[in-house]
Amino acid sequence: MKLATRQPPVSELRAVGVRMPALNATRAGAILAALAPAVLTLYFSFNAGGFFAGSTGMAATVLGVALVLRITLVEEPFVGAGRRLALAAGALGLFAAWTIASAFWSDGSARSIIEFDRALVYCFALVLFGCSALRRGTVARAQEVLAAALVVVCGAGLVTRVLPEVWTIGPNLANDRLSYPLTYWNAMGVIAALAATLLLHLTANVRSPAAVRVLAAGALPVVAGTLFFTFSRGGLAAAVVGLAAYVLVVRPRGLIPALLAAGPPTAIAVVFCYHADLLASANPTTSAAVAQGHDVALAVGLAALAAAGLRLLLLRLDRALAGARRPRVGRRRGLALAAAGAGAAVVAFAALGGPGYASDQYDRFVSGESIDDSADLRSRFVNPANNNRLDHWQVAIDAFEREPLHGVGAGTYVHEWARERDSLLKVEDAHSLYVEVLAELGVVGLALLVTALLALLAALAARCRGEGRQLWGVLLAMGMAWSVHAGLDWDWEMPAVTFWLFAFGGMALAQPGSRSRQPRRFARVALSVACLALIVTPALMTVSQGQLNRSSRAFESGDCDRAIDAALASTRAVPVRPEPLEMVAYCDVRAGEEGLAVRMMQGAVDRDPRNWRTHYGLALARGAAGQDPRPEARRAFELNPRDPLTREAVALFRGIDSPEDWRRRALRARLPVQ
After folding, report:
1. pLDDT digits over 445-493, tens only?
2. Are 193 and 227 in contact (CB under 8 A)?
3. Residue 490: how many CA atoms within 13 Å on its side-chain side?
4. Higher pLDDT, 544 or 78
5. Cis omega before residue 209 (within 30°)?
6. SS3 of 115, please?
7. What region, left, alpha or beta, does residue 340 occupy, with left being phi > 0 and alpha being psi -120 to 50 degrees?
């Protein structure tokens, strides 16, 4: 007969010296949560900032699967869920739903899907981290790892500028302003601004590990050098907002030793960067410029070592500051001091001629002046020109006024700009999150987005009390900097600079003490199925974009057989996309299958009827087939009257009635560059 045995509890096993595994499920989850924001930020950063459909599709799929695993495997999957999270996630989820619903009134289904996938990434991040109810220690570790990731991104970019022979970037990247790896200089500027704010927090926080304080100080000169070579005025403004907000909100005890250690070396590094005039030119890769880059690299490296060394020497001061009591100031006295300080600032501003200077700069901003990037790029920092921003915003406002309720459709601003622009400048976005959402999704879309963002920032602000002021205060400062800059550029479309906000925003929205009822088995299954349904579109878009990229590379190399196979695989994954059919059509023309090319290009037009490229391609396909190309050429011109290609197409076929002439001229016309 088998005797029943009792398993001794863990406490008894430890008492007799039995070693238990150090890593359990809870600890593993905390480690993954701490790593996730940094890992995904790195992934997005080295994949063009996450701008393209494949990156957002992959991230949405991974996050959706992670959420399904949490719902099905964790004992209390919604332990951190509460009303605040429900408000923010509900608004963001409705924003994503409104985004994909816009396909019904915009005729741009593929564009709506791409924008939906991006919103889904942020929504999944908000829910996943909000439901986790992470401890303060895990949030602090997540900040440290994120800071390391941002420094890696900034360091990689800086190396391509000062040591181009060590890390050479591709010829398809503009090399006048530092844009690698995100491929957009202003986004790199924001990355550097966020990194500077977070690093100042880590080196000024007397409760951070000593090694973290030292390394954070040493990284600041690297980040400052990166920010300088982006020549990004918006990035510089974001850094000022973030750093100022952090100091005012947090008032860290270790600010003085942090500034004493990192301030002078960082300033010296920036001075060396400024005096490298050849690195601020349109061609910073000449032999003389490379020599200057080596000097800058040495200066930045020495500055980093000096900052780290000084911070190490000042650690003893941190101990004294950590034990010191803050002077207690009553509310009335505090308000009086704040009012006095503000009054003194206003008087000084007026005495120094500030109002007149501000008026002059405002006039220069609204004058429509553009910045000449062929000149000395250092002059950008003192040039207040709007650089066509007002034109972008006006086109978006005009679109909103036509469709104020629901907008013209997600992702379709590019069509509005192509049709209404007054210059040859090509842009995809309105360079303002709020104005673009207003144009594409109307007041409904903007209301939902603003609700989600305000709920997130309010949660961060609410956490900035007592012991958690430093931990959450830096995130609030970074969120404020992001919110300001997002109104001036297309940060939303670059998850590399935006994902962290929703990850840490979810952490702030979580309610650790919440004991809400957890879902039963049927509810878990239903929620899991819903999540799996949501990730169908991003998963298919990931496959489609991968095949489209292969098709494009094959087409450029002249291998149309492979290009067609990959394009057809792309369209099988997402049938509403026009780009694969365009690729097939151009290959059909090369192969002499002009009739098939016309049918393929007509399919592309049907999938994106307001896209001038599809109409231009149809004009060429019809001409190659001996059919009248002039109506489609005129339609392409109407949709993009400023583009040289559409002007050439109209002129190319004007007054020509011979099918043979149509064919000959169509075959020598230029193809649009994607």
Report:
1. 999 999 999 999 999 999 998 778 899 999 999 999 999 999 999 999 9
2. yes
3. 23
4. 544
5. no
6. helix
7. alpha
pTM exceeds 0.85, yes or no: yes
* Cα within 13 Å of Cα(548), Cβ side: 23
Q: What is the DSSP string of 363-382?
A: HHHHTT----TTS-GGGGGG
Per DSSP, the residues of 489-530 read: S-GGG-HHHHHHHHHHHHHHH--TT--PPPP-HHHHHHHHHH
DSSP alpha helices (H): ranges in 163-232?
185-204, 210-230
CA angle 627, 631, 634 (to 5 degrees): 135
DSSP three-state, residue 453: helix
DSSP 431: S
| CA dihedral over 372, 377, 382, 385, signed as positive or negative | positive
pLDDT digits (tens, 9 = 90+) for 591-630: 999 999 999 999 999 999 999 999 999 999 999 999 999 9
- For 512, other C-beta atoms within 10 Å of its C-beta total 12
- CA 505 – CA 211 distance, rounded (Å): 27
Distance of CA 127 to the CA centre of its chain: 19
Judge whether 673 and 644 are in contact, CB under 8 Å. no
Instruction: Residue 398: name the closest of 406, 408, 409, 389 by CA.
Output: 408
Residue 425 CB coordination number (10 Å): 13
Cβ burial, residue 337 (10 Å; 0-12/13-18/19+): exposed
Q: Within the chain, how many helices (H) and strands (E) appear?
A: 29, 0
DSSP 50: G
SS3 state at 325:
coil
Say if residue 95's pLDDT is above 50. Answer: yes
pLDDT, residue 19, reads: 45
Q: Are 46 and 167 in contact (CB under 8 A)?
A: no
**Helix, strand, coil fractions of the chain, as percent rounded to 5:** 75, 0, 25
CB atoms within 10 A of CB 428: 12
Q: 3-class DSSP state for residue 166? A: coil
